[in-house]
Structures are given as structure tokens and as C-alpha cells.
Amino acid sequence: MKRPAQRRAPLWGVQIGTIVGTALVVAWQVVSARAADPQPYQVVFKPSGDKTLDGLIKATSSLETLRTKLKIGPFALIGRAQSDQKKFVTVLESEGYDSGAAHIMIDGMALSDPALPRQLRRAPADPPAAIVVSIDKGPLYHISSIETPGLTDPAAASALDLKPGDPAKAAPVVGAVAKLETKLRNSGYAFAKVAEPIAIADTQRHTLAIKYPVTMGERVAIGGITYTGMQHMNSKFMARHVKLRPGQPYSETVLNDARDSLLGLGVFSSVSAHTATAPNPPGQVPVTFLVHEQKLHAVSIGASYSSDLGIDADLSWMDRDLFGEAQNLTISLGATGLGGTGSNQSATYGKHNYVIKPGYDAKAVYRVPDFISRTQTVTATIEVLKEYLPAYSRTAELGSAEVTRALGDHFSADYGAGFTFEKVDQEGVSRTYRLGQIPLILRYDTANSLLNPTTGVKLSLHVTPTLSLGAGSHPFVIAEAIGDTYINLEAPGRGVLALRGLIGRIFGASQFQIPPDQRFYAGGTGTVRGFTYQTVGPLFFDGIPQGGTAIDAVETEFRQRIGAHYGIAPFIDAGQVSATGTPFTGTLRVGVGLGFLYYTGIGPIRIDIGVPVNRPPGGASVAVYIGLGQAF
After folding, report:
1. What confidence tens digit (pLDDT) does each residue in 254-285 have?
2. Are 92 and 137 in contact (CB under 8 A)?
């Protein structure tokens, strides 16, 4: 039987299939070779003519802020650009450009171009994709009218801080709600409410008509005041302490001041003020302060380090509320000069070997708030110490009683009396002194933090009349003025210029008629970093610091925060001490350096490295300081 002949595929078909397959493989290889994932890109922002708007656009752009931090592929890049485009429109509206538009082009193609994904799939890594952002502001809208339906106190409308003709920017328009509501609640309307604004745009005139609906509620006074949550505190003392009495006009500011005043006692971890939801009885609103007391007793450990003086460490025990009225007793024991330059050995300065030995500082401090007056606090201190410093060593017993009195929102005064019995050794000569002092300190303080101030000013004037009892002694007066200021250059608190100035003079006695520990010294943290402590100023022939009767110093640093927890602080310090009693005379010393900061919840931990620019012969070439909190 003859088999049927098999059909043979034409040779040209096989050749075409092979050619097509090969072409597809080559094409895929070419595309794969050209495609980039992730896709690098560059962003150009065209100026809109409004520098503030341009800054906001760039700051809110994910294309810009995530360009190097979070790299993405071609499709995700289009999504990121589309997200930015929506955000840019929101920014335009927030700045009063309600008819504005944002345009983003990638490699010359609009985001809506259906060919853009294919183009990006084929785009190589080099050159990066070119993204251009252009903003069409459109006309700036202005406020045409402002209405406050329901407001029965026309004078309160001034709190809006808006008027017809103002640019219709979102922040002040929305923020006016809280301003008006706060004004009303500080005027006795405890239950006043201001609704979100209603804005009606006129696209022809490019204006906004704005309404702020107001519900006034009844005008009331402070009613009954109660305190809850106490464990050891006396509620009668708390009632005397706060500036709040039944029958006075209701004010949220007064309530907040009362809360802050209770927190300032140092006994409570939290204080909250709660008001009734309705007047009871009519015309009055009851107030309840809910407090949470901290643990009655606390033990704390502190330490600081400098390369010249070594480690200062202390252990303290505290009773926060000794007798139920926030009386505070703190007992501490400190060790000084541990491991410093020359601890248990000699340290060369100039021609002399001075010795830094371990010392001690034992102290008991008793603090009583509301002493005679609610604006006064009395503090009694007893202290014994032994210390070894570059200029002298001394053993002393000290006692003082000091009253702190508030003179206003930011002003205060300290005054009191102190007594010192001490033995001081300097240049191989040992003398015993008995001193009586009446210190007076005036303070002005608007700084926003104790350990990490970023705004505000601190000014203080110290005047200390001193009577020295003993043969050949002379009375004298120590006067010193210190000023600190903090300027935000990058908000909020991420770039701060900090400045300190100090000037002082001693009146009534010459240099060596004054006990060595009462004279002025500079060098080290607080004056001129980089120099060994106390070594800026007049020196004995062997290089030991003499101390002077006049001082002036300036400290300047820029605190730049980096990320969430880190920062640096380059600084320049300069100062001098004179033996003639005239400030701005003597040998000016300059130190420069860099601080490294780690920010914690309670304040920054600092490591400062200072270098003297014009150090004297034999002086230290570098100094290191470690501590908690800013340098000043």
C-alpha cells in the first residue's frame, strides 16, 4: 500500500518565522537595555512670580522631597506626579489663587498623554527623566465681605483679624474661627461656638464673601471650684494658690493660668480644668480641677564632664510635698574633679603644675511656695564643699535664705542673705574668710524652654553687696549683667542663632583685697570654651590664674537640627578679665569649636569640642565638654 506523501512546509515560511522571532528577541533586549527601574529624574520648578507660593510648592512636592530618598519605577513616577499636581492646586487655593492651575510635564509630555507610560518604559537611566513644574496662579482672590450672624457682641469681631480687601488666604480665614471663639470665651461666654466659615466665591470679580455663624450662649461667671485627685496635697492651699474665685467673670485664659500655676508647684504630673456643660445655677459655671500627683519621693543622678575639670556627679533625694503645701526638700551629695586633667596627678599650665583632686559638695535645699504672699517663694540652703580648681582650692560652709518674687508675666526678683565661712588656698598662701552677702537679682525671661530654648530673651542683673569680716578686710559689691537671646532662622526650632553677652565689675576693693573665690574668672563652659577653666585673665608668674575685678564675654553659636534626633552647633566665644576694674580691657581670648547634639525628650545631650585661637604658652590645645541641655 502506498503511503500518502507528507506535505512539506515551504522553506520561506520557516525563514520568516525565524526572522520575526529573532526580531522580537532583539527588540525586547533593546527595550530591556534602555528601560530604567527605578527611574531617575530631575525636577525644575518654573518661577510663578510669587516667591512665597514657589517656596510652598517646592516644600510640598513629593517629587522633590522623595527624589533621592525613595526611588521608584516609571509607572509609580507618573502616580507621584499626579499626586503632586493635586497638592499644588490645594496650595494655590490656600494662598488665595482659587482659579489657579498646576502643570507637570515629563520629558515634554503631559501627565494625561496616553503615550507617556510607553515613553517612560523605554527611557534609559541616563539622562534622567526631565520633569518641569509650572504654575498658572490666575488672579488673587480677595475678601469682599465678612458677616458674623448670631454675634451679639460686635466688639468681639475684631478678634477675627480680617477685613474686606485682604487676600483670601486659607490659613487666616480658617484660623479666625478659633480667634473669635477664644475672644468670646475670655469675655464670659463659656459656651460660645463659632462654626466653620462659609465662603461664596465670585469668579467674575475674584472675591470671597465669608460668613462665620456664631452661637453665643449665656454670659456666665465662675461658679463653685473643686479639686479632685489629691493624695497628699491640701485642697485649701491649692484654692489659695490659684488666682481664681467664685463670682469672677468666666475666662478661659484665667482657667489656663490657674492650671499652669498648679503645675508650677512641681507636685503634679498633670492638671486639667473641666467645666460643666451648662450653667448651674443660672449665670454660673462650676469648675473642677483634676490633678495627678507625682510620686512623693524621687532619687536622681546627674553628671557632667569637661576635659579640664573631669566629671562632676551628684546623687539627690527629694520630697516633693513635705507638709501638704508643696514644700520641697532636696538633699544632694556630689563628687567633683573625678578623672579631670591632673586628677591625682599634676597638670601643666604655663610654668606651673596645678593639681585637680576629687572634691565633694553636700547640700540641703528647702523650698516653700506662697511665702507670706502667693507670688513669693522662699528657699533656704545649707552647703558644705571642698573643691580644687586651677586658680585656688577651698573648703567652705555656706548658708543662705532667698526670696523669689514674681513681678509680672516675665519679670521676677530674688533677694535674701547668705553667709560663707571658708578657707581658700592660692599660690601656697592659705587664708580664712567670713563673708556676709545680700544678693539681689532681677530677671526678665521670655525663653520657651529651660533646657532647649529656641525663641525668647533672658536678661538678668546680679548685684551682691559683700561684707568681709576680719583684719584688713574691705566691703565690696559684685555687679554682673547677663543677656541671652534665641533667634529662629529655620522654624520650628530647627535652626537657631543663640547669643550670650556678659559684663561684670567689682566695686569697693582692689584685686587682692577680694577673696580669690569672689573674683571674676573666664575660660571654659559659660564664658570662653576651648580654654581651661578660669585661665582667661591675669596670671601669676607661674601661670596660675589670679582672678580679676572686671569681666566681659560674648558667646555665639548656631544650633542646626539634623533629622529627628541629631544636631550640630558651631560656636565662637570671646572674653577677657581685667585686674583694673575696667571692662573691655585685658587680653582678649577667642575660642572656636563645634557641638554635637542628641535630642531627647527632656533636652539635648551635648558634646562640645573647643579650640583656643590665641592660647597662652602652655595652655591646653583643646577642651571637651559633655552635659545635658544647651550651653546657654
Report:
1. 999 999 999 999 999 999 999 998 998 999 99
2. yes
Q: How far apart are the first and last CA of the chain?
A: 113
Average pLDDT, the chain: 89
Strands 429-437 and 456-469: what pairing? antiparallel
Kindly state the cell numbers that stand for 415. 533677694
Q: Please name the residue that has the C-alpha cell 585686674.
A: 579
Q: Where are the beta strands (DSSP E) in 172-309?
A: 193-194, 198-202, 207-211, 214-215, 221-228, 268-275, 284-293, 297-306
Average pLDDT over residues 551-561: 97
Pairing of strands 207-211, 476-490: unpaired
For 128, the 3-state DSSP assignment is coil
Q: Calculate the alpha carbon distances from 621 to 129, 307, 349, 592, 593 in Å.
A: 52, 11, 11, 11, 12
Kindly provide the b/e burial profile for residues 293-322, where b requires at least 16 CB atoms within 10 angstroms of the residue's own CB.
beeeeeeeeeebbbbbbbbbebebebbbbb
Residue 7 clears pLDDT 60, i.e. is over it: no
Alpha-carbon span 504 to 582, nearest angstrom: 9
Q: How far apart are CA 93 and CA 166, in angstroms?
A: 15
Cα dihedral across residues 443, 447, 452, 454: positive or negative: negative
- Cα separation values, 579 from 24, 330, 501, 511, Å: 92, 38, 20, 6
| Cα-based torsion angle of the residue sequence 529, 531, 533, 538 in order, rounded to the nearest 10 degrees | -120
- Between 309 and 353, the more confident residue is 309
C-alpha to C-alpha distance for 4 and 579, rounded to whole angstroms: 128
Mean pLDDT of 398-422: 95
CA torsion, points 533, 535, 536, 538, in degrees to nearest 10? 150
SS3 94: helix
Beta-strand runs (E) in 59-205: 101-106, 109-110, 129-136, 142-147, 193-194, 198-202
pLDDT at 74: 86
Contact predicate 292/227, CB 8 Å: no
Q: Count other Cβ atoms within 10 Å, centred on residue 256.
A: 12
Render 330-397 in DSSP notation, one character per residue.
EEEEEEEEET-TTBTSEEEETTEEEEB--EEEEEEEEEEESSSSTTEEEEEEEEEEEEE-SS-EEEEE
Binning pLDDT at 50, 70 and 90, where does residue 384 land? very high
Nearest to 600 by CA among 569, 559, 560, 630: 630
DSSP for 582-619 reads: -TT-S--EEEEEEEEEEE-SS-EEEEEEEEESSPPTT-
Residue in 443, 473, 442, 479 with CA at minimum distance from that of residue 458: 443
Task: Output the CA torsion sign for 45, 51, 56, 59.
Answer: positive
Q: Give pLDDT, residue 353.
A: 54
